[in-house]
Amino acid sequence: MSEGARMRIGLASIRFDRKGGSERRAWNLAGGLVEAGVEVSIFAAAIEEPDFRAEVNIVPMVSGPSFLKVANFKNNLLRVLSGRRDIDLVHNQIRPFTDGVVTVGGGCHAEYMDRMGNPLDFLNPLHSVVLKMEKERYRPGGCRAVITNSEFSKQGLLKHYPIPPENVFVAYNGVDLEKFNPVSARLKRAEIRQKYGLGDDLIALFVGAGYRRKGLQTAVNAIGYAKDMEGNVSKIKLLIAGKDDPKPFLRQAGRLGISDRLIFAGHVPEPEALYGAADIFVLPTKYDPFSNSCLEAMATGLPVITTVQNGVAEIIEDGSSGFVLKNPDDAAGLAAILQYLSCEKARYEAGKRARLKSENFTWTKTLQKTLEVYRKVI
User: Fold this and answer.
1) Average pLDDT rounded to a whole number, residues 124-132
2) Domains and CATH numbers, the chain
3) How far is CA 343 from the centre of its chain?
4) The pTM is what?
């Protein structure tokens, strides 16, 4: 590409919308690229109409089981791209479909299987398809560069595949600091509290799809410990948002005698009002390359409690701008932090430092880092 020529980037993803963390990252990246003067072509099987100027290409994909969809999308994407000589670089989102750049928003699948899988998972052909794609692309010469959203995610990738480390770049996720801020988030505090029957209790908020991976069992156990502690923490309730089956955790709460302390809100597309209604954010996750919800909570001024298995832990000063558990199963440790944060002054100070820390992480910085990667490989 000649000096001064406009760059055309192809963004490839099975879905292009704003319904998940990795999808929102791709959406924000596309909008930022357009603003930066880059020509953007989107290649996806399902596309939400973008609110920025971009060429949209529907890639056919069969209906049926997930493993068939992924394999079919990859083959059809390669066929569609084979006739496009105007694309300078294809940037794969989430999965390594082509030999361009890959952003592994959800982390390396082999690492996920190591941490969260069980022997029966290997009977699911989806895992075999994704692992085969990774093995093909994450080898020397298999793709031009990989972008991870944390050092934690980068090290997980390098543990499994012989990618030259100099070809793996960390670009942290960003957060919309205007949308997620302490003032606007609290505008609907009373309304949300009334809607979910939260009263004047101390509210710990949990946001995440896939409750087992995100550590909901530990959070529920911590509420059980907190029930027996002295002080305001004995009135704590857990507000849970995200898609998954609540029944196992309701049974767990029943055994602990805290059924009245759990409120399941289900999937909430715009969670910022929930942050404003809460007092503390908890995500004792077992594996999370970088939790957007933690960064959003920090931006709204909530003290965040998470674990070392979350890439967000890299940007938190433990005990200052947030709290990091060394063991995702440490319910007693989580309860002790909740006890400490039952003090309003402690919550305010930690939340204030969390907001200040979040201000270092914007989508503009993510865009700038991504553009640096593009320039290195084109």
Assistant:
1) 93
2) 8-174+362-377 (3.40.50.2000), 182-358 (3.40.50.2000)
3) 29
4) 0.92
